[in-house]
Write a structure and sequence with these properties.
By secondary structure, the protein is of the alpha/beta class. It starts with 8 loop residues before the first helix and ends in a 7-residue tail after the last helix. It has helices at residues 9-19, 49-57, 76-84, 95-103, 118-128, 133-146, 162-177, 184-194; strands at 23-25, 29-30, 45-46, 61-67, 70-75, 88-90, 111-114, 155-158. The protein is globular and about 75 Å long. A hairpin with a 2-residue loop joins β4 and β5 (70-75). Bound molecules: guanosine-5'-monophosphate. Guanosine-5'-monophosphate (5GP) is lined by residues 5, 28, 32, 63, 65, 67, 72-74, 92-94, 96-97.
């Protein structure tokens, strides 16, 4: 899932994983300093820039990107462990990261969360009041470039209100899980019950 900064995607994903079975949110690594409201190991794994660069060199990231001058990445081993446990995983990553996931041929569904308008995004960023004027201007200019890439995604959710937006995200996940290609094991078990005694009449 990608969305410009301030679109409210973290709130949406937190609600989504609370209300959807077998769905987890990935915890990224970042070289950015923690904000006052953030906790290490909860919001992100906050690590020094040189440690992040050493992890890049060790190919520890499934994907990583430089966003606003800070480094962000998804751990390859954390991701593999969760998927091996049979759960689905939500990666909240930027456009560059989403491209890397696609380029690696990893099975994924790409969702772009849009704010209802640029003016509403700016109001939300200012309301959050965690960033300076200069940072807000930078985030808006990055957002302007990011929304231009929305056509690369499979689905779009406009985050007007939290609950309806979470409902639309859950509907996307349920539809993706119901794809015949992902239901093969269940399907063949059910088909077998019809043929238990004899072939079809
Ligand atoms: P923030 O600093 O506001 O938490 O996040 C800034 C941007 O970094 C957001 O667009 C967010 O999606 C992106 N981001 C967070 N974690 C990752 C990650 O692991 N990989 C990539 N590629 N982007 C990330």
């Amino acid at each position: 899932m990608s969305a410009p900064s301030g679109t409210g995607k973290t709130t949406l994903v937190e609600r989504l994983v609370q209300t959807t079975p077998a769905l987890r949110m990935s915890r990224s690594y970042t070289s950015r300093a923690a904000r006052a409201s953030e906790r290490d190991g909860v919001d992100y794994h906050f690590i020094p820039r040189d440690e992040f660069q050493a992890r890049i060199a060790a190919l520890a990231f499934l994907e990583w990107a430089d966003v606003f001058g800070n480094l962000y990445g998804t751990s390859a081993t954390d991701t593999e462990a969760i998927l091996a446990g049979g759960e689905d995983l939500v990666l909240v990553i930027d456009v560059q990261g989403a491209r890397q996931v696609r380029a690696r041929g990893i099975e994924n569904t790409a969702i772009f969360v849009l704010p209802p308008s640029a003016a509403i995004l700016e109001r939300r960023l200012r309301g959050r009041s965690q960033d300076s004027d200069e940072q807000i201007r930078r985030r808006l200019s990055v957002a302007c470039r990011e929304v231009a890439d929305v056509a690369e995604y499979d689905y779009v959710v406009v985050n007007d209100e939290v609950e309806p937006s979470v409902g639309r995200l859950r509907a996307i996940i349920e539809a993706e899980r119901a794809r015949a290609s992902r239901m093969r094991d269940v399907t063949s078990d059910i088909v077998r019950t019809f043929r238990k005694e004899s072939p079809c009449p």
